[in-house]
Structure formats: structure tokens, C-alpha cells
Design goal:
Elements: H1 5-21, H2 29-32, E1 36-43, H3 54-67, E2 72-82, E3 85-95, E4 110-122, E5 127-135, H4 137-144
Parallel strand pairs: 1-5
Antiparallel strand pairs: 2-3, 3-4, 4-5
């Protein structure tokens, strides 16, 4: 696929955000703030309903990574841009080798799952304005043993 120079920059910006948000010990709202436009929106009501900004998502994801402390993006299966829109489809993996999760002790169980990240970019400012996440949460949680006798939150 061929992208314009601006579309390539937009893809790189989205990946830079993801690389921080998916690095245990590094992910935080403060760590991604320089990539985020003021008033940005995060949308993922089925997986992170309490988060409404990209910074809040990075904080929420950091909490998950305390339990899955080796979580990482394995591959970007698709990286596509058209204008100021970026789509990343990716595969991630991790194990429950860190702290307890919802009262479940670390088991060492490993999971691999897929997700999609849809971004909008303010191209003049070079900042992310929107992130819509679609995530196969059940596959992750089942693989890590987090669905056993627990309501998914």
C-alpha cells in the first residue's frame, strides 16, 4: 500500500502512542500527554467504559499491565491511513505473572488476542484527537484465567 507522507506521519504517531500505552512500567497519562490533543476522546464502552480520554486509557491500561506485566504488542497485522484517519489491527500477548487481578492470584497463564485501534489526528498540531478501541477482551481474560468465577469488569 502506498500512503502520503502525512499519512505515514499519522501512522507513526498512532504507533508511538500504542508503544507507550502497551509498555508495562511506562504506560501512563503523563507519558502519552505529548501525543494527545486537548479535548481528545477515547471510546471503548464495552472494555474501558470509565475512560473518556486517551490519557485516561493509558492510565487504565497501566493498571491491567500490573497483573499482566509482560503484556506486549506482538505484531501490527494492519496499519492503514486515509487522510487524518488511522487504523491499526494488532495482536498482543501477555501472562498473569504480576499482581492480583480482581482478587485472582498470578497464575502464569498466557493469552494471545487481537484488537483494533482507530485514531483521528489533528494534522496541523500533529496530535491525536480520537481513539476508538475494539478489543477481544474475552479471549484475553479467559486465557489469563480471569473469567473463572468472576464477573468481567
Amino acid at each position: 500500500m502506498s500512503f502520503t507522507a502525512q499519512e505515514e506521519k499519522n501512522i507513526a504517531l498512532a504507533k508511538a502512542y500504542m508503544d507507550i500505552a502497551y509498555t508495562p512500567g511506562k504506560a501512563s497519562g503523563k507519558a502519552v500527554k505529548h501525543l494527545c490533543a486537548p479535548g481528545n476522546k477515547f471510546i471503548a464502552p464495552g472494555t474501558f467504559p470509565e475512560c473518556s480520554t486517551l490519557e485516561e486509557y493509558a492510565e487504565g491500561h497501566a493498571e491491567i499491565m500490573k497483573a499482566a506485566n509482560d503484556l506486549k504488542i506482538v505484531s501490527y497485522d494492519l496499519a492503514y491511513a486515509k487522510g487524518n484517519q488511522v487504523t491499526l489491527r494488532y495482536t498482543a500477548s501477555g501472562s498473569h505473572s504480576g499482581s492480583d487481578h480482581n482478587g485472582i492470584k498470578a497464575s502464569g497463564k498466557r493469552a494471545t488476542w487481537t484488537a483494533a485501534a482507530l485514531f483521528e489526528v489533528d494534522e496541523k498540531a500533529g496530535l491525536l484527537t480520537k481513539f476508538v478501541k475494539d478489543w477481544d477482551k474475552y479471549t484475553m481474560w479467559k486465557g489469563l484465567g480471569w473469567t473463572d468465577n468472576v464477573e468481567m469488569k
